[in-house]
Amino acid sequence: MDLTQDEVHRQSLADPEGFWGRQAEHLHWHKKPAAALTRTTKRLRTGETHAHWEWFPGGEISTCYNCVDRHVLAGHGDLPAILYDSPVTNTKQRITYQQLLDEVEVFAAVLREEGVKKGDVVLVYMPMVPAALIGILAINRLGAIHAVVFGGFAANALAQRIEASRPVAILTASCGIDGNKPPIPYRVFVEEAIRISSWKPPKTIVWQRDELPWRPIRKLEGQRKWQNLVKSARARGMRAACVPVKSTDPVYIIYTSGTTGLPKGVVREAGGHAVGLHLSISYLFGIHGPGDVMGCFSDIGWVVSHSYTLYGPLLAGATTVLYEGKPVGTPDASAFWRLVEEYKINSMFTAPTALRAIRKDDPDNSHIALIGQRGGLRSLRALFLAGERSEPAIITMYQDLLNKYAADNALVVDNWWSSESGSPISGIALAPHAAKNRRVGLEGHRPLGIKPGSAGKAMPGFDVRVVDDDGREVARGKMGNIVLAPPLAPTAFRTLWEDEDRFYRGYLKRFGGRWIDTGDAGWIDDSGYIHIMARSDDIINVAAHRLSTGALEQAITSHPLVTEACVVGLPDPLKGHLPFAFVITTTTPTTPNSSSPSPSSAAAAPPDDAQLFAELQTLVRTQVGPIATLGGMIRGTTSTTMSTTSTMMIPKTRSGKTLRRVLRELVENAVRGEVDKEVAVPSTVEDAGVVEVAREMVRRYFEGRKREGGVKARL
Ligand code: AMP
To answer: What angle do CA 224, 230, 231 make, to 5 degrees?
Structure first.
């Protein structure tokens, strides 16, 4: 039977009980669930009601057992589970399933001795080292709940999360290493965070690394040295067995990356998480089991890495590559391609911002070409991109490269999701391996084609709709708010940590409990492809026309000299707002994309600002429409000599998301003559200094504009 992604999706919505019930059978349950799904209505204290559902009620499961023990018992103990590669410490390590089981059993016993029990929260603040994955699995083994906080967050951001989750212990390391920078003293950050926090976790377990000199453990403050505890537990033969939890018990809390407001603690539930990820890693990512290798290059602090560095590949019994390095600079822009070659990675996952960084460093794609020409990328079946919108220019460029160098029919797959969804809401399910796909009951599935600029079609269990501000569905092709109809797929959240009210207010109230708001805006085309164009808050209203930042940035980045763009609304007395662009250009054309225009300037001397602006204006007017006429532009350039200042103009979160809101506020303040006014910068900002660089550029731009009486304003 040949099933398309559309048919699989239809089945999952028409008969969720049957569909997910079959998926659940692929896992080991300590107690089988009584049903796959039950649905009820929840009544809040305020009297408001909304749809409520439970996945796999009555079931009991241990995710750790399914990720580790199960594969050893099946005779796969000698297969590699984790391949650790750390150019920043010059270390490589191969950990088999048997070795992983041994480490996790012992460390779980350590945690138990340190007072961790089922249902407790343990906070993890770790670099990308095997101990982080072992620690997380050990927490899970005890039926406890992990809350991983991105390493390197400042002490106050960490303190906020400690207070919110009240952990009984913190796992950390003496330091993290961020590219070529000096080691970051994680342990000191933790100490400072505990000092600030009103909640004092009784224990802090420190993984000692060689990159920072040893500081004595402060035993009286509850600190313990990880390696010593393990040594002692091993000597005494201590090991811990898996403690199953109810399907609806939390396995983890993850705080959203926070481009807006205070971080929210998304709760992931045991049963749905395991079943949903087990399907997606195989169906969407094409990682089916032993012999398949996943390379998910994100940090364990983010949901992408929770799902596809750790849990997904291990649930499948495949191999995961744990990379402690950067896309560029460790040592250069060849890093990802070197990893694909060395570990024969089948599916690679990263954020578009990483590819943009590679493109800036290596505009000719010389690294990928060199490795590709010697056949080093033949194992690669797909390059997955998520985290923010991928402009078509970057998708087509990498698709062309995959066509040349990767496995037959390899795809670049933009997939859209969030911490809340736990797995992709949309994407293109990979060409399956028929025999392997049989394991998940989806034999004969055929992949759809990709459409650059679209994040693919809906994934099983996600009922995606586009609605207007009153919650009414809009016609195909029309832009609106992207919402989900309940119930959500099993990996997705059903509440926020100890904050049911905020869950309702944040996601359900806007549409009267009928839809779950994703906070994203976009459209679905006639063939069902989903286009995520902006955060709803980033929509620019020009003379009552709603323009998405994504469409404008797409037009601007189709210019061969533009490597990155960020568009925000410039207040305008006549039209409400005009699109205003921050653009980063390079001196070398970087988008050999046949659909791009070839402005005269690309071949000759680089255009000056006025010429570039005119060219971008033409692109925007032709690709989006005359209504989208740009109201101004600030330009930064990338060249070998200037790379630092130029790339520092667009602030990002630690997870690589553009902080449009910050640039928007700077522009709005400047228009009001208040450029020095403080802007709300989230604690997740990668480098707060960038905001100040942007502020200076905005100041200079608007001072110039004022001097010239608005005439040159359009530059
Ligand atoms: P987070 O919870 O930090 O993973 O952020 C989720 C948000 O990232 C989504 O709501 C989107 O705004 C954005 N996002 C993630 N993946 C994509 C994508 N493929 N295309 C467009 N936006 C994306």
So the answer is: 110
Residue 681 lies in a domain: yes
Spacing of C-alpha 652 from chain mean position: 13
- At residue 711, does pLDDT exceed 70? no
Determine the distance from the C-alpha atom of residue 164 to the mean position of all C-alpha atoms in its chain, rounded to a whole number.
22
Encoded tokens for 133: 């994955």
* DSSP assigned state of 572: E
User: Is residue 329 situated within a structural domain?
Assistant: no
Element (H, E) at 272: helix 270-283
Distance CA 296, CA 293 (A): 10
388 CB less than 6 Å from ligand 1?
yes
pTM above 0.85, yes or no: yes
| Residue closest by Cα to atom 9 of ligand 1 | 418
Place of tokens 């951001």: 157
How many alpha carbons lie under 13 Å from residue 586 in its C-beta half-sphere? 23
Question: 259, 353, 388: which to mutate for ligand 1, most atoms within 8 A of CB?
Answer: 388
From ligand 1's centre to the CA of 310, what distance in Å? 20
| pLDDT tens-digit readout, 610-625 | 999 999 999 999 888 8
Mutate to test the pocket of ligand 1, among 252, 267, 383, 389 (most ligand atoms within 8 A of CB): 389
The parent domain of residue 579 ranges over 543-707
**DSSP structure class, residue 506:** I
The domain total for the chain is 1
The CATH number that applies at residue 555 is 3.30.300.30
Domain presence at residue 651? yes
Report the chain's mean pLDDT, rounded to a whole number.
Answer: 91
Determine the atom of ligand 1 nearest the C-alpha atom of 653.
3
pLDDT for 599 equals 47
287 within a domain of the structure (yes/no): no
Contact status, residue 66 vs residue 104, Cβ threshold 8 Å: no
Mean pLDDT of 463-490: 97
**With contact defined as beta carbons under 8 Å apart, do 197 and 157 qualify?**
no
